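Hi, here's the filled form for the chain we discussed.

Project: internal
Contact: R.S.
Residues: 663
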Amino acid sequence: MTQMPPSNVPGNAPRQGPQLLALQAQILASPLLFANDTHKAWQFLTEQISRALYADRVSVWLFTETDILQCIDLFQYQTKSHQQGANLKRSNYPAYFAALTQDVLITASDAATHPATAEFKDGYLQSAGICSMLDAVIQSDQGLCGVICIEQQQARQWTVDEQHFVTAMASVASTVHTFSQHLRLQQDYQLSLARQEMASRHACIGFWEANMGSGELWWSPMVYEIFGVDPQQAKPDRTLFYSCVHPEDMALVLDSEAKAAKGGEHDVIHRIVLPNGTVRWVHEMAKWTAPDAVQGARLIGSVQDITAQQQIRAELQQFFALSRDVLCIANDHNYFERVNAAFCRILGYSEAELLSKPFTDFIHPDDLNLTESEVTDLQQGGVTSGFCNRYRHKDGHYVTFQWSSIRDPATCKMYASAQDITERQHLEQLKHEFVSTVSHELRTPLTSIHGALALVLSGCLGPLSEQMLPMLQVANNNCQRLTNLINDLLDIEKLSAGMMQLEMQPYAVVALVQQSVDDNAQYGQARSVRLVFQQAADTAKLYIRVDKYRFAQIMANLISNAVKYSPAGADVKITVALEQQQVKISVTDCGCGIPEDFKHLIFQRFSQADVSDARQKGGTGLGLALAKQLTESMQGEIGFDSAAGHGSCFYLLFPTVQISASR
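And the returned structure, exactly as it came back:
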């Protein structure tokens, strides 16, 4: 099309009817109007109208809401530019909106005084320099849908031919608008199909429709994949479907279809056999549609491949059935929903009996309050670990369980496992009683023996021969070792039972450690090992809260171990430092280090890295276990760093405490 200047250029007369009809035909013939890009279609239309009418500005406005017009495209001839996005609200321009509903055309030679456009005067008309307007209403099947607006910056009388042309262009715009809506609906539909196909593939769900009279069957692409059937080689029908159903599940499928004919719902889980022999589990759900004058009865539904879920369910069922530990699921109403065979075997009840009553009915009365508190904590997001309570056996005695459990807020169910620790508790009690009895029974005679041996060795009863002295010294040393062993055993039992009394007081840490070094210096000298005490400059006024006697006991254990495992002539370093608001007391030796495979046992009772070496070094294997329990009882921490062949460093961590100036 020939580009023409606007009418404000001298010598340009308005086009006549035949010319405008020819231009109208050219516009309608353009493929741009009905291309997939509707944005370009609107730009093409506004440009062609501007050039046909020599108009300064042409715009298309469409209703996005009942009371809002939005500018889809505005073409300005002078700048050859396009704009969009402006809005007009009915509440701001009521006269203009009223005119659109009443007239096909608004012909305003003087827009500032025309009744329909005068309300634009103080804002829009002045800022854009608009004098004349010609607006044509765009109609659709639903009624008024927009407007084409032609604007001139000089006064202009709109001819009848121009008005007819703009009316025709409004009809073209209506067609373009309808086409764009259909295009958008088609795009939305294709997007919906793509999303559905993606969801179907991700969830392994296909869709199908079966004509129960003719046997015809329609499958979506995913169903072909689930059944392992090539859509190019087989047309699905009910005969093909039934041939895929696992023979053992055929009666189940037929029964579900019969129930659907009566109740309207088809819901069945069954197996299918693929052409290659693979077995899959599927879940079918469908609605029964009664026959009508056009079609017979139909089932319309979905099928999902649930093989993976069934395998997991089977594995969980196997785990649930074979577990020797108690496994159960309970709801917020304190009822078990599922219990395993181990639970029934241990308590002597059947599964039905355990599910028939609140689980609180089986709990020992003395444990009810603690159990209810634990359940409340679970419901508030807590996790149970190590909680113990007693359940009544069917014959009347009680079984002690140690629980681990968690609650799923999505299902409001508690999932728990437990171990029967009744026998363990009994054995622990017997052990405690045995250790306590033996220790106390041995302590008195050992004290007497040790005193007698010391008296003999002192020479008070007369001189000793050279042959007797070594033997008596061995007996005295072993008597002392037994006494130390019994004392350690009693201390550990007291700590385990919570019966040890600790006198916690604040003490200057440097003075405490210095005293321990002094007390154990002779032990080091006897083995040619020197104790070296070092303190950081910022530790002189640090205090920790401990039991002074038990702290000395811990340090004696750590220092004696370091001395025993250091070679003659070596130094054992004892240091005090401040580390992140905690006092760190370290004892470092020059020994052979702790083997990697023994580190996890280092604080266990009777643990010794090398049995033969321990016999040479001496010791009961209780010192570090006792040191750990004593440290933790005083709110401290104990740990170590060690590498085989490079010695070991055992350390204590205690929080600092503030001491008032008057102290």
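Let me know if anything looks off before we file it.
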